[in-house]
Write a structure and sequence with these properties.
Blueprint lengths: L19 H24 L10 E2 L12 E7 L9 E7 L4 E5 H6 L1 H8 L5 E3 L2 H10 L7 E4 H8 L8 H6 L9 H5 L10 H28 L3 H21 L1 E3 L1 H26 L8 H11 L7 E2 L2 E2 L3 H6 L5 H25 L6 E2 L2 E3 L9 E3 L11 H4 L5 E2 L5 E8 L2 H10 L2 H8 L4 H9 L9 H16 L3 H8 L3 H14 L1 H17 L1 E3 L5 E3 L8 H37 L5 E5 L3 E7 L3 H13 L10 E6 L7
Parallel strand pairs: 1-4, 2-5, 5-6
Antiparallel strand pairs: 2-3, 3-4, 7-10, 7-13, 8-9, 11-12, 14-18, 14-19, 15-16, 17-18
Helix pairs in contact: 4-9, 5-8, 9-22, 10-13, 15-16, 15-21, 15-22, 17-18, 18-19, 19-20, 21-22, 22-23
This protein binds a DNA duplex (10 and 16 nucleotides) through helix 11, helix 13, strand 12, helix 18 and helix 19.
DNA sequence: AAACGCACGC
DNA sequence: GACGTACGTGCGTTTG
C-alpha cells in the first residue's frame, strides 16, 4: 500500500492537531479500508465490465495486426519448467484466446510471433520469450513490456501479478492468478471458460493500460531508460537464462559426500562437548545449550530469545571449545543444504541450471537471481569457493571467463560527487582503500597500515551501501561514537562527497525521490518523517540508491552492448551470468584471446564517466578457476 | 503456510 | 537520544 502523500508539511503550519505521522497513520487506515472494499468488490467477480472475446480453433494470419497485445498464460512463475496454458491477443477492436494446443500447431501464429517487424505489446516479455523458446518459438518484435514499464515508473511497488500492476493504473477488470487458480495444495487450472476469460482479460489489460504507462514514462523522462535499457535487456537476459549454465553433477555429489562425513564428525564432537544430543540447526535449542547449560554470556538477544548469530559466537570463541565447532558446523551445513543439495535439485534434464533473473524487483535497479540464485555462490572462504568447480562450460574445448568491474560504485560516486580527490585517485588507478586511509588518517600512502586500510575499506563499504554509524560500528566491532567519528573524518577528507551527500538528501526532501545516472527513480516517502529511524533510513537510502542504482545502470548498458558485440564479431562465446558487477561467459578456447580483449573494452566504454571504468578479467576450465 | 533466525553474495 | 542495521535468496526450525 502507498504511504500517504501528505504534501503540506504540518511543521510549517503551527498546527495544534495530530502531527504528520498521526495523519499518515490515519490516511493509511482509510486507504486500507478502501482497499478491503475493493477486494470485496472484485471478489464478486461479476462486477467486472463484460468482455467479448473469441476463442480461435485455427489462427488466420489476417487477424494478426501490428501493435497487438500478446499474452502467454503460464501456470506459475517457474517459466523454464511450468505448463504453458494458452495465448491471448488484444487490439483496438478485438480480443482473441488461442488454446495451447492450437498455438503449437499454428504456423501462421509462429511466423507472426517470430516476425521482428510485427510489433507486440506484452507484460513480462522475458518469461514469455523463454517459455515460447521451449516450444521452438523465437518470439521477436516485442515493442512494449508493461511489467518493465511499471517497474521503471515505481520500482518500490511489489507486484508479481498482472492484476496488481494494472490496478495501480486504475484498471481493475482482470483477476489475480490466485483468484483464478487458487493457491497452495488447492491450486488447479480452472475449467476452460474461466481460463479463457482470464487470459482474454490479461491481453485486454495490457492493451488498454499501455498508453497510460507510456505517458507516465514520458512525463518522468524515463522513456529511454525503459525503452533503450530495460526492454532490450529483457531479451538478452531471456537468452542467457534459456542457454543456462552447465553443472558438473558428479563434482557436487562428491563434495556432498565429503561434507556429510565432516558434518557427522563435527556433530559428534558438539554433542560430546555439550554433554547431550540436541538439534544444532535449532537456534532455540542451541541457545539453551550455550547460555543456560554451559553458562556462556548472552551478548545479544533476538525478539524470540538468545542470538546465536556468527558475530555473537565469534566473540565467544575463546570461552569454550564448542563455539568453534558450531561455527564450522554452520558453515559446512550451509554449503551442503543450499549449495550442494539445493543446487542438485535445480539441475534440468539438459544438465544445466536455468536461473531466472528478476528484472522488476529490486528498489535500486539491480537484478536478482532465483531458482537457483546464482548471484550468491560462495567465493569468500576457500571451502565454499570450491562449489564453483562444479560450474563448467557446456561444450568440450570451451572455457569459462569472468570479468568484473573494479570499484564500480566508488567510481560512480566520484563521477556524481565530482570529488576532486576521489577523481584523482581513480585517474591514477590508486588502491582506493589505501588512498582513503591515507586521507582519513592523514598519513602518506606508504604509511598506511593494514588496520588503517581495513577500517577505510569498511567506511567505503558503508558509503556504498548506505549503512549507518551503527552498522559501521558493528562491522568494525567498535563503538557507535567511534564509527560516527570515522565517517565524519571521511567526509572532511572528501568534501566533494560531503557536498553530494548533503545535496542529494536535500533534493530527496524537496522532490520526494532520487535518481540515477540514467534517470532511474526511487521514491522516499519517509524522507520528511518525524520518526527518527524512518527518516534516517530514508536519508541513507537517498545517498545509497543513486550509487548502487547507477552502477546497475552501467552494467545493464554493458550487457546490451556485449550482446551486440558478440554478434557483430561473429563469436560463438556466450554471456551466461551477471553478478551485480561482473559478467560471466563461456567461450570456445579459440575465441579466448579475442574475448579477453573485447569484453573489457566493451564494459569499460559502456558509459562515459569523468573517471575511467576498470575491468579485471580471467579465464579457466571452471568458474572456480577464473581467478 | 508464515514468520523467524541464520548465512551466502555484491 | 532516538534503535536498527544497504540490496537480495534460500535453508531449517518454530509457530499458528
Amino acid at each position: 500500500m502507498n504511504k500517504a502523500p501528505v504534501e503540506v508539511s504540518i511543521d510549517e503550519l503551527d498546527y495544534a492537531g495530530p502531527d504528520q505521522d498521526e495523519l499518515v497513520r490515519i490516511w493509511n487506515e482509510l486507504a486500507f479500508k478502501s482497499l478491503l472494499e475493493k477486494l470485496d468488490y472484485t471478489a464478486e467477480a461479476t462486477e467486472k465490465e463484460d468482455l467479448n472475446f473469441e476463442v480461435l480453433e485455427t489462427v488466420d494470419a489476417s487477424l494478426l495486426e501490428d501493435g497487438m497485445a500478446v499474452h502467454l498464460e503460464l501456470y506459475d512463475e517457474h517459466y523454464h519448467s511450468c505448463d504453458l496454458l494458452g495465448v491471448s491477443l488484444a487490439s483496438e477492436k478485438a480480443t482473441y484466446v488461442i488454446p495451447m494446443e492450437v498455438v503449437v500447431e499454428s504456423d501462421a501464429l509462429k511466423a507472426w510471433l517470430e516476425d521482428a517487424s510485427a510489433t507486440k505489446y506484452m507484460s513480462d516479455s522475458k518469461a514469455a520469450t523463454a517459455a515460447f523458446l521451449r516450444k521452438g518459438i523465437k518470439i521477436d518484435g516485442v515493442d512494449f513490456d508493461l511489467m518493465l514499464g511499471a517497474y521503471i515508473v515505481n520500482p518500490s511497488l511489489k507486484y508479481t501479478d498482472l492484476a496488481d500492476i494494472v490496478r495501480e493504473y486504475g484498471y481493475s477488470d482482470v483477476s489475480t492468478n490466485e483468484q483464478v487458480y487458487g493457491k497452495g495444495a488447492k491450486k488447479k487450472v480452472p475449467e476452460a471458460a474461466d481460463l479463457n476469460e482470464h487470459m482474454a482479460r490479461k491481453a485486454r489489460a495490457i492493451f488498454n493500460v499501455r498508453p497510460v504507462v507510456v505517458k507516465k514514462l514520458e512525463e518522468n523522462e524515463q522513456f529511454d531508460l525503459y525503452d533503450k535499457l530495460e526492454l532490450p535487456l529483457a531479451k538478452v537476459l531471456g537468452q542467457m537464462e534459456s542457454l543456462g549454465v552447465k553443472v558438473d553433477r558428479g563434482q557436487l555429489a562428491d563434495m556432498g559426500v565429503e561434507l556429510k562425513r565432516k558434518l557427522g564428525m563435527i556433530e559428534q564432537e558438539i554433542y560430546s562437548l555439550a554433554g547431550q544430543e540436541f538439534n544444532i540447526n535449532s537456534p532455540k535449542q542451541l541457545g539453551v545449550i550455550l547460555f543456560e547449560q554451559l553458562g556462556l554470556p548472552a551478548i545479544k538477544k533476538t525478539k524470540t530469545g538468545y542470538s546465536t548469530a556468527a558475530d555473537v559466537l565469534e566473540k565467544l570463541e575463546g570461552k569454550h571449545e564448542i563455539i568453534h565447532h558450531i561455527l564450522m558446523y554452520r558453515q559446512l551445513g550451509k554449503l551442503l543444504s543450499t549449495y550442494i543439495e539445493g543446487l542438485l535439485k535445480e539441475i534440468h534434464e539438459d544438465g544445466k541450471v536455468h536461473t531466472r533473473f528478476q528484472q522488476a524487483l529490486t528498489t535500486t535497479g539491480r537484478l536478482s537471481s532465483t531458482n537457483p540464485n546464482l548471484q550468491n555462490i560462495p567465493v569468500r572462504l576457500e571451502e565454499g569457493r570450491k562449489i564453483r568447480k562444479a560450474f563448467v562450460p557446456s561444450q568440450p574445448g570451451w572455457v569459462m571467463v569472468a570479468a568484473d568491474y573494479s570499484q564500480i560504485e566508488l567510481r560512480v560516486l566520484a563521477h556524481m560527487s565530482k570529488d576532486e580527490s576521489l577523481i584523482e585517485a581513480f585517474q591514477s588507478d590508486l588502491d582506493i582503500h589505501t588512498k582513503t586511509a591515507s586521507d582519513v588518517f592523514n598519513v602518506s600512502l606508504e604509511e598506511v597500515t593494514s588496520d588503517m586500510r581495513r577500517a577505510a575499506k569498511a567506511v567505503n563499504f558503508g558509503i556504498v551501501y548506505g549503512i549507518s554509524d551503527y552498522g559501521l560500528s558493528q562491522n568494525l566491532n567498535i563503538t557507535r561514537k567511534e564509527a560516527a567519528d570515522f565517517i565524519e573524518r571521511y567526509l572532511a577528507s572528501f568534501p566533494g562527497v560531503q557536498g553530494y551527500m548533503t545535496s542529494i538528501v536535500e533534493q530527496a526532501k524537496k522532490d520526494g525521490f532520487v535518481t540515477t545516472l540514467m534517470n532511474r527513480r526511487r521514491y522516499l516517502p519517509d524522507i520528511n518523517s518525524s520518526n527518527f529511524n524512518l527518516r534516517s533510513f530514508a536519508e541513507r537510502t537517498a545517498m545509497n540508491t543513486p550509487i548502487q542504482g547507477s552502477a546497475a545502470d552501467v552494467i545493464k548498458q554493458a550487457m546490451i552492448e556485449m550482446d551486440i558485440a558478440l554478434e557483430r564479431e561473429g563469436l560463438q562465446s556466450k554471456m551466461i551470468l551477471q553478478v551485480h558487477d561482473e559478467l560471466i561467459f563461456e567461450a570456445p578456447a579459440e575465441e579466448l584471446e579475442k574475448l579477453m580483449e573485447l569484453v573489457p573494452e566493451v564494459m569499460e566504454s559502456a558509459v562515459k564517466l569523468n573517471v575511467p571504468l576498470k575491468v579485471d578479467i580471467a579465464s579457466g576450465d571452471t568458474w572456480y578457476d577464473t581467478k
